[in-house]
Amino acid sequence: MKKVIGLTGGIASGKSTIVDFLISKGYAVIDADKVVHELQQPGGKLNEMIRREFGSDYFDGQGRLLRKKLGQLVFSDEASRQKLGSLQNGVIREELYLRKAHEIDQLPENGVLFMDIPLLIEQDYDGFDEVWLIAVSPDEQIHRIVERDHLTVQEAKDRINAQMPFEQKKKKATHVIDSSGTIQETQEFVEKLLALLY
Ligand SMILES: CC(C)(COP(=O)(O)OP(=O)(O)OC[C@H]1O[C@@H](n2cnc3c(N)ncnc32)[C@H](O)[C@@H]1O)[C@@H](O)C(=O)NCCC(=O)NCCS
Ligand SMILES: Nc1ncnc2c1ncn2[C@@H]1O[C@H](COP(=O)(O)OP(=O)(O)OP(=O)(O)O)[C@@H](O)[C@H]1O
């Protein structure tokens, strides 16, 4: 039987790192952040919608969305975040379900599709055989965000606070992946979960 696994976790919990590992193992993966970025680029379904709502200050001369700039606005102002959500969420959801149907069609019998969706639990995405939730402490998230994205501690906290706390998300997860150790340790644990799938 084909399976679809949802992969989720807070910001900088290690989703992309696990996705890279799954791809290296030959698994099919839909990465929601990448899909959103495609939809936001010139010609994408969201590009013009965002320009109309937020103005051309958020675009460069080639019509590309200045994501960092829009991120600074929406993660420091809840009303703007909600406005962006009302604008984008329906289009994103529709695109993700379309791609999911397409990828499932391509899967071999007993194949597994992963969907990395950061807001999977917050936004009630469904239709998964399992949901894998990555665990990381807020302190570690702040540390990683500051290191990786060169944001201030306050900016890191704003992003974390825009998401549902781990304890609440845990209720909806079938498996929890601890990412507080080394990347290798996380990968070894993921290997164990993969082995349980068959
Ligand atoms: C605000 C935007 C332009 C910032 O772009 P940027 O390149 O700086 O960040 P990126 O898209 O890579 O997201 C990084 C992480 O931020 C978190 N995040 C993104 N959007 C949100 C949000 N609305 N609420 C809470 N956390 C969010 C996620 O953990 C995500 O993995 C962009 O994140 C966006 O359009 N977000 C809303 C779309 C969305 O819901 N994305 C999540 C996919 S389900
Ligand atoms: N055990 C671990 N497992 C996964 N990532 C780790 C681990 N230890 C450190 N990291 C680091 O944490 C940082 C964040 O990882 P990654 O970019 O994969 O997170 P993410 O959840 O995809 O982030 P975002 O929500 O911003 O898209 C990276 O710099 C990664 O190298």
From TrEMBL:
The keyword tRNA processing does not apply. GO terms for molecular function: ATP binding; dephospho-CoA kinase activity. GO terms for biological process: coenzyme A biosynthetic process. It is found in: Cytoplasm. It catalyses: 3'-dephospho-CoA + ATP = ADP + CoA + H(+). It comes from Lactococcus fujiensis JCM 16395. Belongs to the CoaE family. This is Dephospho-CoA kinase. Pathway: Cofactor biosynthesis; coenzyme A biosynthesis; CoA from (R)-pantothenate: step 5/5. SUPFAM superfamilies: P-loop containing nucleoside triphosphate hydrolases (SSF52540). Its EC number is 2.7.1.24.
